[in-house]
């Protein structure tokens, strides 16, 4: 484990440490440390081998970050999220004070969110509603040290909200015009699936809609939906089948055909895999 730092911060900076209990560790997120630093020009931290996550949000000034051999600037209104097991070095970027809020956290949902936000490369995300983001952060800080069930849940909720704002911010057209273009392309594919879900749809057919390679298309589709194209199609067919089972008296075999499955046994298998019930039992119990 590596840790070097120079805490060249002002007296009105805040730094709070908490010890998560067994209850908090069962929640999607729990907190280890949180702070609001106003850093002078000689402030820096160099770290590696710490198995938690670190969110830093610049209020004013600018920070410099080196992470996984890449370099980033963190100007006012931006957020970066890193995994502290990887090498990182961050410092005040200029003579102007770097005013930033940060939190060390972990939890069962942490990796899912960092993958959504960063993917293969770190994303520096611009936050649109800075006041809202900072208010959520202050609410998080207010719950440090209480360590009861209510405060533990509040901590988990606040971290979820902060990270969710980062995910949404990443897809904002003002943040990343390339990502927004891809999002629009995937929405075109989704609309095609919704319109033609009861017909045979091939991967080649979907790729041709937005003129990209299969590899690139599969990566884009999974990034924006969480599904493979085939998985999305099956999920949509199952949802349509559930509506027909609940709201009509149409036979299971006919529903199978109506939602685009080739045979009843395949339909039943996919339906049970998705819901835990056969179509007949789903109709009976729901």
Description:
This protein has 286 residues and is an alpha+beta fold. The protein folds into two domains: 2-170, Jelly Rolls, CATH 2.60.120.280; 176-286, Arc Repressor Mutant, subunit A. It is 47% helix and 23% strand. It is built from eleven helices and eleven strands. The chain has helices spanning 22-25, 110-118, 130-142, 149-170, 177-196, 203-210, 214-225, 229-247, 252-258, 264-275, 279-285; strands at 2-6, 14-17, 30-39, 44-48, 53-60, 62-67, 70-75, 78-83, 88-92, 98-106, 125-126. The protein has a six-stranded antiparallel sheet with strand order 2-3-10-5-8-11. Strands 1-4-9-6-7 form a five-stranded antiparallel sheet, with no helix packed on it. Strand 6 and strand 7 (70-75) form a beta hairpin. Helix 2 (110-118) packs parallel to helix 4 and helix 3 (130-142) runs antiparallel to helix 4 (149-170). The radius of gyration is 24 Å and the shape is elongated.
CATH class of the largest domain: Mainly Beta
Largest sheet: 6 strands, antiparallel
Q: What's the alpha carbon Rg, rounded to whole Å?
A: 24 Å
Identify the CATH homologous superfamily of the largest domain: Regulatory protein AraC
Q: How many helical stretches?
A: 11
